[in-house]
Amino acid sequence: MSSLLSYALPALGSYAMLSIFFLRRPRLLHTPWAPVFLPRLGAHRAGSGELLENTMEAMENSLAQRSDFLELDCQLTRDGVVVVSHDKNLSRQSGVNRDVSSLDFEELPLYKEELEVYFSPGRFAHGSDRHMVSLEDVFQRFPRMPMSVEIKEENEELINKIAGLVRHFDRNEITVWATEKSSVMKKCRAANPEMPFSFTIGRAIRLLLLYYLGLLPFASIPERFFFCFLPTIINRLIMRRSLIHHLEQRGVQVVFWCLNEESDFEVAYGLGASGVMTDYPTALRHYLDNHGGAAQAS
Asked: Does residue 93 contact residue 87 with C-beta atoms inside 8 Å?
């Protein structure tokens, strides 16, 4: 046993030192991704804390606050129109108990006059614009605005239509695939492999395991964005500045969501995040302007 330990301990020590060395200097092993855009300020559901979510009015407001990108979710109508909608069912948004897929685009109801902000319970958003919009209209209105498009289900028609719209409007570099499910992401990447994409939940778990095992410096990372849900206690415990620095050095941009308080902005940028996704772009813009762009997003 003692002879085994005499070999194992030095080997483990050397492995640990090598892992730490390359964790801090990943560019010695990997060519970093070139950033497609700088995501300091992301407007969640187009800024759903200030105006009704995913409306043109909310998007215009987010642009007025110099948001760097919009976060959107998409569904497909019965007549094949890609519509910007977080929910599959319209009950919460419109008070109509119908799925988006059961209606033609022209039949979609108006949003309610006020909507509770999901990540700020007890707060409500209002707006004069209550119309749901198509993704095509959004691309036409904001042709060079970066966007993250989340797909929630394995709907190949929806995925292929989004991929086609992105190509049609020449947005491959500034439109990000996002989904929680690896099976969905596989279909997204197949539909348009030129678009950057983010970590799924499964890939994020793998990333953390590799980091804590000391193997991350030696693993390939095809993702270019890591959208991390920061408010949960577990995520605040497991996310480390050294991990975020490693990802940034490899060109993976880390964005924490969905943060709506200044104290949360402080935590995110203190960890070294590239950016923050919020329901309140005006509040985050005010914070960034008063903190030097959060040191230009660290």
From this structure: yes
CA geometry: angle at 211 spanning 209 and 215, to 5°?
95
pLDDT tens track for 133-179: 999 999 999 999 999 999 999 999 999 999 999 999 999 999 999 99
In this prediction, residue 238 carries a pLDDT of: 74
**CA 37/CA 234 separation, integer angstroms:** 29
Cα(216)–Cα(214) distance, integer angstroms: 6
Instruction: Output the pTM of the full model.
Output: 0.92
> What pLDDT, on a 0 to 100 scale, did the predictor assign at position 292?
81
Contact 267, 293 (CB under 8 A): no
- CB distance 243 to 271 below 8 Å: no
Task: Count Cα neighbours of 201 within 13 Å in the Cβ-side half-sphere.
Answer: 7
What tokens were used for 6?
A: 């005499």
Q: Is the dihedral of CA 153, 156, 159, 165 positive or negative?
A: negative
- Mean pLDDT (whole number) for 63-72: 98
Helix (H) or strand (E) holding 249: helix 241-249
- Which two tokens mark 170? 């020449």
The DSSP code for 99 is B
- Cα 251–chain centre separation: 15
Helix 182-191 vs helix 201-213: angle between axes, to the nearest 10 degrees?
A: 110
Q: What is the pLDDT of residues 191-208, one digit of tens each?
A: 999 999 999 999 999 999
Q: Which helix (H) or strand (E) holds 126?
A: strand 124-126
Closest CA to 257 of 47, 25, 63: 47
